[in-house]
Amino acid sequence: xxxxxxLADWGDVGGYEAETLWDVCxxxxxxxxxxxxSGARCGRCRAASRSGLVLECLLRGPDEVLMLDEPDNYLDxxxxxxxxxxxxxxxxxxxxxSHDRELLARTASRIVTLEPGxxxxxxxxxxxxxxxxxxxxxTGSSGSRSCAGAGTRSGPSSRRxx
Length: 162
What we know:
The chain has a domain at 63-153: P-loop containing nucleotide triphosphate hydrolases (Rossmann fold). The chain contains seven helices and five strands, in the order H-H-H-H-E-H-E-H-E-E-H-E. Strand 3 and strand 4 form a beta hairpin. The strands form two sheets. A three-stranded mixed β-sheet has the order 1-2-5, with no helix packed on it. Strands 3-4 form a two-stranded antiparallel ribbon. By secondary structure, the chain is of the alpha+beta class.
């Protein structure tokens, strides 16, 4: 009976949905189903694979707002391009810190620079898309906002800070 209760409790807290998400993420990032990947030692994985798996889970997960610190560190070129595509397509609001000007130029809708004195904010290279979206009245129901340590990417339906 305790085992049956444990299975029911696992279902009640979303355990089966989490297993499905992990399976989708491990197949996408590592090419291996979760049941085989779960027994592997993380230390044997390439840093790019570990980072890719974490990013895959975050971007596919239920959270509406993500904060990422140097998300492209340790990524190989194909995984970095994948990250850029995912940031552009994601409906999530993503606050990320990056020193990679290429990543910022390709994905950030707003850039905040932190320097001595007052903080400054300016539209990122993709902000024109944001202005057009806002002008058309397509704002998210959650009223999510975007700000950045270095760059941000808000989903196409998110409202921007002015």
